[in-house]
Write a structure and sequence with these properties.
single chain; alpha/beta; Rossmann fold; 9-stranded mixed beta sheet; two-stranded antiparallel ribbon; 13 strands
């Protein structure tokens, strides 16, 4: 099965660069391709029809998961993580599609603050060129459920995108001129943050993430108190608050939000792999992410109450990822 990407990166000498483009590019990448390329670009219409295939029985498409990467990801890093998510979910029974939004960021931690600026200016492209397309399919009595999985600064992209969409009260139709989606009637079913690099306080009821709650049926935050990258981000950005991917959701988060503490699980694997990056991105390591992937699938399916998902346990009134199944 090919990989579906929509990219906000600019094109420079027939390759993707690290600046923001005014046009979003749609790619269908063959599963045997080692890297994404401009030769994989297709029209928005062909991309959407190939993704959804409305006339392809007998298995209707029920779920589309949109993955939004964080900082310090090249386009090929994004593709590698995209395939880890897609393959990991498919191995345990996921029947839907995985789509990735690729936004331009640097390849060095020193570029972190410029990356956040790029994240903000690409935020609306996520809504206009991705979510809006699928929202219009929902308006046509389609049964597709759209879900979002955001890693690291990807959570910032999502938060800004939802807030901007509400501020404008309309998301545009991209290539399909004349067709708009009112910001009040599009929804994401499951919103999931991993290593989310937004302030924990912004996820309070009525705070900056209010638009996320307004347009999501359920919000799940996976936190890890051992995340050293998020600890460093606090030092580099002196005066900024603790990140939701490190300390978890605030106590006054809305009832539709749930936090899953990965700390006890991570504590059993942290000595196996050295390095700061692993504490932030272990979700993409197939040697260690099996329980998380199973929890992710249960969350996407939404059939089991959040407190009874088999990959979680309640410890001292807090949901934790199980150490073993």
């Amino acid at each position: 099965m090919p990989d579906y990407i929509f990219s906000a990166r600019n094109i420079n000498d027939n390759s993707f660069g690290n600046d923001v483009d005014t046009t979003v590019h749609y790619l269908i990448v063959p599963d045997d391709a080692n890297a994404i390329s401009t030769v994989h670009i297709v029209t928005q219409k062909d991309w959407l029809l190939n993704l959804i295939k409305p006339d392809a029985p007998p298995d209707p498409l029920d779920d589309i998961l949109i993955y939004v990467h964080g900082y310090n990801n090249s386009d090929n890093d994004m593709l590698a993580n995209h395939r880890i998510i897609k393959n990991g979910l498919e191995m345990i029974g996921y029947k839907g599609k995985v789509v990735s939004f690729d936004w331009p960021c640097g390849n060095s931690a020193l570029m972190y603050l410029p990356d956040r600026h790029k994240a903000k200016i690409t935020a609306m492209q996520l809504v206009n060129s991705g979510i809006a397309l699928l929202a219009r399919q929902q308006d046509k009595n389609c049964t597709i459920n759209v879900h979002l999985l955001a890693h690291s600064t990807g959570a910032y992209v999502v938060r800004e995108a939802f807030d901007d969409a509400d501020d404008t009260n309309e998301v545009s139709a991209g290539d399909n001129a004349g067709v708009g989606v009112n910001a009040s009637n599009w929804m994401v079913t499951q919103m999931m943050f991993i290593s989310g690099d937004v302030s924990a306080s912004s996820m309070s009821e009525g705070a900056y993430a209010n638009s996320i709650y307004a347009h999501s049926v359920r919000v799940t935050n996976y936190s890890n108190p051992y995340d050293k990258v998020l600890a460093l981000s606090n030092i580099k950005r002196a005066g900024f608050e603790n990140r939701v991917g490190r300390i978890g959701l605030p106590l006054d988060a809305p009832a539709k939000a749930v936090n899953v503490n990965n700390g006890p699980y991570f504590n059993t694997i942290k000595d196996d792999v050295a390095g700061i990056s692993f504490t932030h991105s272990w979700y993409f390591n197939p040697d260690y992410n099996q329980i998380f992937m199973q929890d992710l699938l249960y969350t996407i399916q939404g059939d089991i109450d959040r407190n009874y998902i088999p990959t979680r346990e309640l410890v001292n009134s807090e949901l934790e990822l199980k150490i073993a199944l």
